[in-house]
Amino acid sequence: MKAISKIYLLITFIVLLLLIGSIIFFKQESHKDKLQELRRYAVADFEKVLAYENANLLSFSLALSEDGALKKALYQDNQQAGYELLYSISERFKKNTHIQKLRLQLLNNEFEIFAQNWKQDSGGMPLSWFRSDLEKLKYNKKPKVGIETGRRLTFKATIPIQYGKEYIGYLEVIKFIDEFSEKLHQQGIELFALMNPEYILENSLMKEFPRLKGYVIANENYNSKLKVKADSFSWKELKALGYYKYEEMLFLLKPMYNGEYIQIGEYLIVLPKKTFLEYQNSYQDVSLITRFSDEDIYNFVKRWEHPNGSYRTIKDRELLELLPKLYKKDKVLLTQAAEGVLQEYTKQELIDIILKNSHKVNKVGKIE
Asked: What's phi and psi for 215, nearest 5 deg?
């Protein structure tokens, strides 16, 4: 009987051990599942903000490409006038908006620099030898926007310019990755834009930038203390799972693609302790994008649903919606182009614009 009792006790002990082990295992797996779900949500959220950044840059660039004075300077091959106009535009934005490092450049049809707002002696410099992304524009003439490499890592919008029906060149509007990083920092999120060294150009300023785990840190305003922490642990799990929890912070890894959808590096997104806790407590209700103004969110969503709005084309919409936001001096440059666009619209279409209805919505009533 005693032997049987010992066997029962041993079996009971083993069962209890297995039960406790199972509880611990499933608890750990549940924790991993929650972190993975939080990672998916945070990355999707980041992608929305990234798309928002690209959409805003494209909108601004499309409107600016209709500037009659810029077109005239390019058409008449007046590089000095082109430089002065670009410089004046960038200085007014620097003075009156949060945009402090806006770079503008005009290219001719051979993809040679015509004028830049930050340098007066670069005219005639070819770009096609290191800008393979420009080749497609020769044929499709479609506006493009995305992350691109050069001497720095930037958001870059490239817009074909028409003078009448003739294509005469391109406008490029460039913003440094640092500005995007700063916006995230203000929302409690830290960013490391990590470039694969093989995509760094020979004459790039980034060749001398600090490195992290073999990547080049492309944004200069990274958090140096977090760099030390990110460098102190193995990235094996981070690369395998896409996330790694370290000292009450969550490190997330997401591929970085350029405008041609070629992976050129990684985004290392860091949720510091406070931000991580906020996400853990309510990540299904809290979004990076909801930290922007309600008007911004509304406009962002509406543009996905009805990109043209009540206008015939997206280009018309961006031009005409930009005008009320400009200072009087800036409006002069685009007013003539806007008047030309509106003259092509019918009375019914103009009423649709006023009522802010979709262009294809049927209207009931008679226009006299």
From this structure: -95, 155
Domain extent listing, the chain: 32-51+179-287, 54-176, 306-355
Q: Which residue has the tokens 């524009």?
A: 137
Residue located via tokens 């834009």: 193
More confident residue, 238 or 32: 238
Question: What is the CA 3 to chain-centroid distance, rounded?
Answer: 72
Q: The pTM is what?
A: 0.71
CB atoms within 10 A of CB 74: 25
Distances (CA, A) of 365 to 244, 248, 257, 362: 61, 63, 49, 10
Cα separation, 224 vs 203, in Å, equals 25
Please, are residues 329 and 89 in contact by the beta-carbon 8 Å criterion?
no
Report the candidate in 181, 212, 176, 177 with the shortest Cα–Cα distance to residue 196: 212
pLDDT, tens only, 200-223: 988 889 999 999 999 999 999 999
Question: What's the fold here for domain 54-176?
Answer: Beta-Lactamase (3.30.450)
Distance from C-alpha of 56 to C-alpha of 103, rounded to nearest angstrom: 15
